[in-house]
Amino acid sequence: MKVSAALLTVACGLVAAHGDVPIPRILGGGKLFSDLRARHITGLARERAVEHVHNKRTRNDKRENTSGQCGKGYGSCAVGYCCSAEGWCGKGSDYCTSPDCQINYGPACDGNRKPSGVDTSSVPRPKLGSVSIGGNGIYDCVNPGEIAITFDDGPYLYTNDLLDKFKSYGAKATFFITGNNIGKGMINDPSTPYPAVIKRMHAEGHQIASHTWSHENSSTLTNNQYTNQIIWNEIAFNSILGFFPTYMRPPYSICAKACQNILATLGYHIIYFDLDTEGYLMDDPTLIQTSKNIWDEAINGANVRTDSFLNIEHDIHYQTVYNLTDYMLSSLFKHGYKSVTVGECLGDPASNWYRAGPGKHNS
Ligand SMILES: *[C@@H]1O[C@H](CO)[C@@H](O)[C@H](O)[C@H]1NC(C)=O
Ligand SMILES: *[C@@H]1O[C@H](CO)[C@@H](O)[C@H](O)[C@H]1NC(C)=O
Ligand SMILES: *[C@@H]1O[C@H](CO)[C@@H](O)[C@H](O)[C@H]1NC(C)=O
Question: What molecular function terms (GO) are annotated for this protein (predicted)?
Answer without folding.
Answer: chitin binding; hydrolase activity, acting on carbon-nitrogen (but not peptide) bonds; metal ion binding
